[in-house]
Specification:
This protein has 18 helices and 14 strands. A 6-stranded mixed sheet has the order 4-3-2-11-12-14. A 6-stranded mixed sheet has the order 5-6-7-8-10-9. A two-stranded antiparallel sheet has the order 1-13.
Amino acid sequence: MAARKGQLTETTPLLPTHSKHRGKRVFAAVAAVLAAGSLFSYLLLAYCNYSIADTSSKRLSSAAVGRYLHITDLHVDPNYMEGATTYSQCHRRPPHVLPPDYDSAKDGHAHTGRFGIPLAKCDSPIALINATSEHLKHEWAHKLDFVIWTGDSGRHDGDPEQPRTFDQIIQGNDIASAALRSAFKKIPVVPNIGNNDVSPHNELAAPGHKRACKTFRALERSWRPLIPKDQVPTFHYGGYFAKDVVDYDGRKGGITALSLNTIYWYRANAKVGGCRAKDSPGLAQLAWIRYQMRRARMRNRDIILLGHVLPNRDNYRPSCYHGYARTVTQTVPPPALNSSDSSEELVNVHAQLFGHSNVDVWAFVGQEAKWINSHDALLIATENVTDKRLWWEREVDEESGRFGKLIRDVWSTDVTMHAAINQPDERAWEDMEDDPQVHFTESADHIVPVVNATVKQSLPSDFVESLLKEFERVLVQNPPNPRLGVTTISPSIIPKYVPSFRIFHYLRSQPAQGERWWHLPVGTLLDYDVYWANIHKLNTKAQIDVRSFFTRLYRFSDEYKIDDLSINSYLKWAERLLSSKALRKRFRSLTYLGTQ
């Protein structure tokens, strides 16, 4: 029987992909579609019993409200095989060489379904990427203003029998880019580089190194035309870029998205250091953010920051974390819009969006007073005691020194002139040798285990507790934190827990005085919805209606009784969270999308 429009069947074609820069076509693997079994019994109970009422959307129906999608961590795996063992990272069906004590009953290999398997170290099958693309095309393309895509489209490198190559990383990005461009033909999509979009993962050399150049150029081609032409030189230099995504209704200005290269701040990247040295790639990116914020103020535009790895003390090198916090956070409470006090400019960052962790959480980011007093003062080095800028901030503002040169030569250069004069010959890059394959140790009779199938895969048990302690530290800090912001971490498409994404609601135009949210600046985040795909059920169906592939799990404001997503609202909500055991239990459950 023919499938109706909006349905996926066992014969639905998969997304093709190609890579022009390698001089040959690369096709996405076509996954065999078999009848899917059930998941583990504990997952069955969790998925069937866990639901949240779909409450009214009336409060967000105002014409002043806009929407955008945050999608992250697609981790496309063309080698995914339905019916394979999770032990093989879902790459091989039994029988294959296994250790003598292997217990197939505990592995769940018969249940690796068409759209993936939750709670296992397997990546996203092509069928899941196709279904996600079709759902977004039919349900969201006409409702959204823009799309934020925060990286990690390459598969993980965890299977010793199929080591991941650089070409395969680019292939994953080819497929993910094609899927999103197919879904969103008329609205801006902003891509981003993740720690699994480089080879080896987590490692990225400084700008100018041939591997860094190779990576940035390959990703730019894979994402083309998503990076604006005038930003291509900046991306080729450092892996970051700016893109205007929306203009406000009824007034000048709009929102500019800054796509950050968080790998240059990441502790796990051994190829670069911190953000203190003058030639630090991480410091250069901080200077670029300041430059873009200055441009945004002059153009009356607000900023959304997007990156892959969440900024915190564990993920970033200390000097990079505090430099980031200093650059992007605002005084709490923020100055009134009509304030005559110009000593602290209102930082125009309305959202900070990240991925990487696969969970559904948010966190504070801020620079402590002790760091400002003990470190920044040493770097100011100016005869003007009223000038509290750091040396590199002055260079950006005055367009002098090293960062003034970067502004003139790269960040604000004419793209045609830059491409003609400063870019290396394309054929010379094509001839570069590929990254060597990673070698793995294995015994003569079986592969080294990738996943302990008897242990449920999750973040460390104290992950939520560490967040709660951070909330408490922010609320009780003495002296109070002088600079504070909020970062949000969206859940992932890869079924680490369950495929999910967020829809954010923001103030696109100024309501009339007295109407709801009239007191908030345009651009302020108001709310978000989390959508999930119950792949336990979807894996058992021969035909899928893509319109209902993802359904709403919950709305933040309804679940936690919060008015908006301003910093002051988050502070009030964090205080309630710390004082309520029931609320903390709910927060923990939603962090893992109800699977814990």
